[in-house]
Every structure is written in C-alpha cells, then in structure tokens.
Amino acid sequence: MKHQLKEISSCPICEHKTFKSFIKCKDHNFSNDVFTIVECEHCSFKFTNPRPTPETIHLYYQNDNYISHTSSKKGIFNKVYHLVRQYQFGYKWNIIKKTVSNKNNLRLLDFGCGTGEFIDYCKQKNATVFGVEKDDGARSLAIKNYQLNVKKELSDFNENFDVITLWHVLEHIEDFKLLLIKLKKLLNDNGIIILGLPNHNSYDAKTYQENWVAYDVPIHLSHFTRADILKLVDELSFTSLISKPLFFDAYYISMLSAKKSGKQFLGGLKNGWLSNTKAKKSGEYSSLMYILKN
Predict the structure, then answer these.
(1) Residue 221 carries which DSSP code?
(2) Sequence-distant (≥ 6) Cβ neighbours of residue 230 within 8 angstroms
(3) N or C: which terminus of the chain has fewer CB atoms within 10 Å of its end residue's CB?
(4) Any bridge partners for residue 48, and if so which?
(5) Closest-CA residue to 193 (of 294, 285, 281, 43)
(6) Which has the closest alpha carbon to 28: 221, 217, 184?
(7) What residues of the chain score a pLDDT lower than 50?
(8) pLDDT tens-digit profile of 189-244?
C-alpha cells in the first residue's frame, strides 16, 4: 500500500551521491510495506531511501498506538512507558539544571512536545516553558490538559531560549540541518540544544536487526550515531558536545522489538539489560542524549 515516495539523491550529511543498502525493514504500524535504509559510501550515514514525500508522510502516523501523540495508558507497553517516563523526566531535568548556564528564570522550548507532559513537568520546576507540536490532536491536549503555550510552527515564536529540547524528534525531520540552524539562532548566549536519539550501534539494535523498533520506517527518515552528531556539531559551529545515556529506552525498545519479532517478553527485558551492560564499556546505549552547546 505504498503511497508516493521520493528518492534522495545526495547524503543529508556530506552530500555525496553513492549509497549502498544497509538494511530493509517493514512498517508494522500502518502500511506493512518494506522500506530500505541506505548507507552513504563516503561518510557512513544511514537514512531511509526512498521515503514518503512531505505531502504523504502524515499518512504513516495514522495509528492510534503512536505513543508520542497519545496519553493512553491501556496495555502493558503503554503502562510501562508512562511509568518510566516520569522517572525519565526527573533524570532529564537534573541534567538540564547541571548543564545550563542560566539556572534561574530558565526558558525552555520543547520542539515536538507531543501531549506536553515533559514541559508540564519542567513548568512545575519553575521553568518558563514553550512547545512546538505540528499534530493538531496532541497540541490540543497539551493546551487543554496543562494550559501550555504550544504552537504549531517554530515561526510562531519570536523569542530566545536557554534550552531547546528535541526528544526523539530529529530523526523524523526531512531537513534536519536547516532545523538545527534555525534552533541555534533562537538560543541565548551559552544556551544548549538537547537531542534524544536512538542509536543503531547499540547491542539491542544489532540483536533485533530488521525487527528493531527504533528503525521505525518510514517515519524515521534518518538514523544517527554519535559520529554523525559530531559532524553536525562541527559543521554548524556548536562549541561542544556532551552525550548521556537514556537507560530505560533499552528495555522499552527491546520489549517492543521482541514482541515484533515473535519472541518472549522476558527475552526483551534481558536484552535491554544486556544492552545497557555492554554500553557501560562501549558507550553505545540504545538511545543517547546529546547536549550541543552554543
């Protein structure tokens, strides 16, 4: 049931034009179609190619179970997700407070804020918070449930921020370089951008391969590693890069990947633990938080 697709002719990072097939993955959320992730033969960046057009990509999000756009707690995976998410909010907030220069009157923008729970948590910690969310339903819930200042477009804000966060968002963006350039211009002096991204160099990605849910084709257009982010930091003139693990992602992603590949739930938990254990030495956690300093 493939809709119109577009072929990318040059690597989004280095602009070279020769690629090879890296892996083929099935879209289990909407279409059941198979999509190819290619690898740039020059810089090794991986990206989904071909991919939906900007006009058709929204069709692949039409799934009531797309967790970032729902506050549902039905089912074990949603319950686990929401339970762990509260802990993750505290973990992320503590890192923000330790890293940001302006610790008082902190202004935070969450790009792709979903239904608003993270920025509501930050608001309760006395941050002044803002959100951008394109999905009309999710944005409405954020405003209705938490009385948040959430807009549909980044251009709706004409102000600066100490922190801009993108939690599992950049991989969805067609022109991610342009977005980072725009966000950088909105930072105060010594401001930071924080990216939360899946890492296909992790143990769980290599274990589940085409069934690793964080490939999430075709809505994940790009598939980043630490090396890719370092290239962007250098090209876009950020002053430094810090990376931190998102520990619980390994368990959640492994549980869903086990379910997707027809394997046992407990096996997913075990592989999540193994992924984190191996990452203590390698640094290749299932998901990583990247802190880019202005």
Answers:
(1) -
(2) 241
(3) N
(4) 37
(5) 294
(6) 217
(7) 66-67, 69
(8) 999 999 999 999 999 999 999 999 999 999 999 999 999 999 999 999 999 899 99
